[in-house]
Design a protein that fits this description.
This protein has helices at about 10-15, 20-25, 30-45, 50-55, 65-70, 75-85, 120-140, 160-165, 195-210, 215-225, 235-240, 245-255, 260-275, 280-290, 295-305, 310-320, and strands spanning about 95-100, 105-110, 145-150, 170, 175-180. The protein has about 325 residues and is α+β, with helices and mostly antiparallel strands. It folds into two domains: about 1-195, no CATH class; about 210-320, Arc Repressor Mutant, subunit A, CATH 1.10.10.
Amino acid sequence: MLAGFNVPSEPILRTANLTRHDLEDPERSAPFPDVDRLIGLCVRRTKCPHFGLLVGQHVNLQSFGIAGRLARNAPSVGAALQDLAAHFVLHDSGGVPSIAIHDDTATLAYGIHTAGVRNADQVYDQSVVSMLNVMRQLCGAGWKPDAVLLPRKRPKDIRPYREILGAPLQFDAVQCAIAFPAFWLARPVADADPLLHRVLQDRASADLSGREPTLHGDVRRTIRLLLPACRCSRADVAKRLGIHPRTLGRRLQESGTTFQALLDDTRAQMAKQLLLDTRLPVARIAAGVGYDDPTIFTRAFTRWTGLTPSQFRLKVAEHS
C-alpha cells in the first residue's frame, strides 16, 4: 500500500521493529506498541491523514487467524462475533472487541487497553473499517450499519470517511463502534461448516489455555471491556477471568500492583485519548470512563496527571 504513495516500506518496517512476516502472517501477533509506531510513521511519510482507513480496507476475518476462521464457521452472526471477541487476544494483545445490545440496536465496538498509544485515532479508523468488513463477510456484501462511531475529531476532509465507510458518521464519540439492528445477530452464517467450527473451537480453546499468562494485560483488557457498561469492580473482573476476587487481589499484589491502580491507569488512558482526539465535554468523558459525577472524575484525573481535564486538553492543544 505504501508503494501507492511512492514510499518504500522496508525502512519504515525496520524503524517500527517489524517485518513483512509479522504483518502478513495471521497466526502471528505483532506487539501493539510496534504496530502503533508503524501506523504513525506511515501517516507522517505518506502525509495521508486517513491512512488508517486505507489499512482497514485490507483487513477481514482471515486476517485474525484462528479467531477469524472460528467466527467464519459459527452458526450465526451473533455467535461469530462472540467467538471473535472471546479469542481475539490470540491475534491482538492491545485491544478488545465487544458486542452489546440495547433495545433493538446492537453495537460492535473495539477499545484499546494498552497504555501509551500515540496514534489511537488511526488505529480506531482502521478498526472501524475492519469491523465493517467482518460484518459484510458474515451478512453479505451489501450489508450496511445504521451508524459508525469514531472517538476522534471531525477531520477537515470527511470525503474518504463517507466513501469508505458508506454510513452515517458520528465523530467525537465515546467509543469506536458500528451500530446496526439487533436482528442481524440471529442471521445464519452462509456456508458455515459446523464440523470445522467444532474442530477450530477445540484448537482455539487449547491455544488460549497454552497462552503465556499476562495478568496485568488480562486485567486491563477485561477492565476495558467492562467499563462502558460501568460494571467494573474487582469482583466483576475476577468473574470474567474465572478466579476468586481475593485470589486476583493477592496475585496483583504479588506482582507489585493493585486492582485499583490498574483500573485508575486504564481510566486515565481512556480519558486522555478522548480529551486529545475528541471535542467531547468533560462530563461526557467522565461518564464514558465510569464516573457518574464529573466533579469526582476531575479530582481523580488531577490526581493521576497533575492537571485538570480542561488543563490537559489546553496543554495538548498548545503543543500540537
